[in-house]
Design brief:
The chain is mostly helical. 59% of the residues lie in helices and 2% in strands. It contains 36 helices and six strands.
Length: 702
């Protein structure tokens, strides 16, 4: 298996972590009789030789040895090696994903072990990706033999490799037809059906024969798992040949499949079989194959959100907890990608909070935490869970600051006032969660009841304690979120400190102190000596903003901000432009550096400079083209651009078509197809609210 391995100059080759000197040991580890060593070697192969999808020259050198290992019956668990080869030689995803999250590794059908896959990273040195793919194609006959291997897992993994690497479509279809006619293992049958779908997408000129095979497998008397696999592939590559009403059919097949799986599991766990694996399964049931089958159906439905919601409702009402857990992760992908009325779906997600299976409940909490206001339909079960489980109020980490537990965070983020008394109880205890201020910010006026206890906790901080600044930071964020002017004495106590110099610039809570002082405005005038000292520190720009808010004196900070605008650090340039924007007309005349900033290569520099120019000069002419370009080409800037358009009022009418088009779009502005991309639904919902405020004009985008 390792003939010639010592003749390779591994030290001259590279992988993700540098020299490839360790690769011979990893290759030998794949053939070790010890399972732990084999699994560790495979994991390290992915991490070093196919790190986030990148292929290296050392990866290329491994291909012949991996092919040999995959073909040797003396090597256990060879399906993992075949999957690694598929991942290395892959040329990108062949179908969309629904954005499912959660634990697990892709199953029998092969594919990418990490999230990025072969398409996820750049090519390695010297065109290694192309060369590795060519080397695997040159050895593709190995997969022909492996498709008939005695090990079912190997046969399943080899099916995908046949389609990907054997450059003879007619022969590949013949092999798949032969294998699917004689195969009796359901997992391999499913892998073959998925490979037929892949074949149709890769070789449309030869699709008819593959589609005939899929149609035959989508009907009785085939088992529900195989029928579901065939249904998903037909929906994705030939919808006209898929059965009518595919969503109810998919739900029915899922439940039939789950009932069979549960029966098999109950039989395996009969008395006397209380194994460690069994106990772990009951704690966190896993069905990666079922998840993959449903993801194929979701991917085929794509933007048919009503149908996808109906499918999710069927999954979420399944009697099988594993189906419901998988559905929760898929629902997260739909909610992240698509706008619309999701109240019914969110209500069903909330129903999972009462599940006896901890994994289902935890998944539901995770999804609801990221929904913010959209989680309101699930507020009642969230509040019930919070009320019944005080042990979930705070989450402590081995390292780092404690944070709010998921159920309480989700309840607060939804804006539900029932979170307020619970937060008060948390604050009455010894721990102040690090994300307290962020949670309070979503509770609106209902959070005002927390102001006295926040002030009290601030007043109890020991100024000479090394832990004092870390304790103060979340409380100061809470003061800022509350807008509590009555907290000024407690804040000034922190500002004065115990030393004659007052607030130490190196203290961890300086950004929060400066932010609160700026929000207090003229009421914090007694803090101006401290703010002036901070103008000579790394906090200079933030301190300049607070100085302006407190004193309305532009003469002190304008020269500092102009210097920062000319600096090399684009983050500091943007921060300086933001302060000048807050100063508005007081920053006149508008610095020439701001006008240059509208021509910067960085989109955020351009948008920030344009917004500052508008606030300073109220001249729309140089601003509108910058905002239009940023909106069109850089969706991440749309929230800030929309804020500026709202501020501009009637002057923004020429760009009124941009927010109007945004409001008509069904996909969230930061979402990528499949539910990937930004997980921040809050940004998208806020953008939509701003778009509704922009004046609608007669003009069209410039």
């Amino acid at each position: 298996m390792f003939t010639g391995i010592d003749e390779v100059d591994w030290a001259a080759l590279r992988h993700a972590y540098g020299s490839a000197e360790d690769v011979p040991g990893l290759l030998r580890g794949l053939a070790s009789p010890d399972r732990t060593e084999r699994e560790g070697a495979l994991d390290r192969m992915y991490g070093a030789l196919h790190h986030q999808g990148t292929v290296y020259d050392a990866t290329l050198a491994c291909v012949p040895f991996l092919l040999t290992l995959a073909g040797s019956e003396a090597v256990p668990e060879r399906e993992g090696i075949v999957e690694l080869l598929v991942s290395i030689g892959g040329d990108g995803p062949d179908q969309k994903d629904t954005g499912q999250e959660g634990p697990g590794r892709q199953g029998t059908g092969g594919g990418d072990r990490d999230g990025g896959g072969a398409a996820g990273g750049a090519d390695g040195p010297g065109g290694a990706r192309h060369s590795a793919r060519a080397a695997i194609r040159a050895g593709a006959e190995a997969f022909v033999r492996l498709a008939g291997d005695a090990d079912a897992s190997v046969r399943g993994a080899a099916a995908s490799a046949l389609v990907r690497f054997l450059d003879e479509p007619a022969r590949v279809l013949g092999l798949l037809r032969e294998r699917i006619s004689v195969e009796r293992d359901e997992r391999v049958q499913i892998a073959l059906a998925e490979s037929l779908g892949l074949f149709v997408r890769r070789h449309p000129a030869h699709a008819d024969g593959a589609l005939d095979l899929l149609v035959a497998r989508s009907a009785p008397p085939n088992g529900p798992g195989l029928r579901l696999a065939a249904l998903g592939q037909l929906m994705g590559c030939a919808p006209v040949r898929a059965p009518a009403d595919p969503v109810p059919l998919a739900v029915r097949l899922l439940r039939e499949r789950s009932a069979r799986r549960s029966a098999r599991w109950a039989e395996d766990q009969a008395p006397g079989k209380d194994t460690l694996v069994g106990r772990l399964w009951r704690l966190w049931p896993s069905d990666e194959e079922g998840s993959r089958l449903l993801r194929s159906v979701h991917a085929a439905l794509d933007d048919r959100v009503a149908d996808r919601t109906a499918l999710l409702e069927g999954q979420l009402t399944s009697p099988d907890p594993t189906d419901r857990c998988n559905a929760l992760w898929m629902a997260a992908g739909v909610l992240r990608e698509w706008r619309g009325d999701h109240a019914g779906l969110v209500t069903l997600i909330g129903d999972q909070l009462g599940a006896v299976e901890g994994g289902v409940r935890d998944a539901a909490v995770s999804v609801l935490t990221d929904l913010f206001g959209l989680a309101a339909p699930a507020a009642d079960p969230l509040a019930a869970l919070v009320a019944s489980r005080s042990d979930l109020w705070v989450r402590r980490w081995p390292r780092g600051r404690p944070v709010l537990g998921g159920p309480l965070r989700a309840l607060a983020r939804s804006g539900d006032p029932r979170a307020v008394p619970v937060l008060a109880e948390v604050l009455a205890g010894p721990v102040v969660p690090g994300d307290l201020g962020q949670a309070i910010g979503h509770l609106g006026g209902a959070a005002a009841a927390l102001a006295p206890v926040v002030r009290r906790r601030l007043g109890e901080i020991h100024l000479d304690s090394p832990a004092g600044p870390a304790q103060a930071a979340p409380l100061l964020s809470a003061v800022l979120a509350l807008g509590d002017l009555e907290a000024l004495p407690e804040v000034m106590r922190l500002v004065r400190g115990t030393a004659s110099a007052g607030l130490c610039p190196d203290a961890a809570h300086v950004p929060e102190v400066v932010g609160v002082l700026g929000a207090f405005g003229p009421a914090a005038r007694e803090a101006t000596p401290v703010l002036r000292r901070l103008l000579d520190t790394e906090h200079a720009i933030a301190a300049a903003g607070a100085w302006w808010e407190v004193t309305a004196d532009a003469s002190v900070v304008r020269p500092l901000l102009l210097r920062e605008l000319e600096g090399a650090d684009h983050r500091r340039r943007r921060a300086a432009a933001e302060v000048l924007a807050r100063m508005g007309p007081a920053a006149r005349p508008a610095p020439a550096a701001l006008r240059r900033g509208t021509e910067s290569g960085h989109p955020w520099d351009r948008v920030t400079a344009a917004r500052a120019l508008w606030r300073i000069d109220a001249d729309a002419e140089p601003v509108l083209p910058v905002l239009q370009s940023a909106w069109t080409h850089h969706p991440h800037t749309r929230g800030t651009v929309a804020e500026c358009l709202v501020e501009m009022g009637p002057a923004a009418r020429p760009l009124g078509g941009l927010p109007a088009a945004e409001l008509s779009s069904r996909r969230r502005h930061l979402a990528l197809p499949g539910g990937y991309g930004s997980h921040d639904i809050l940004k998208d919902e806020r953008l939509l609210a701003l778009c509704r405020e922009v004046p609608v004009g007669q003009g069209c985008p410039m």
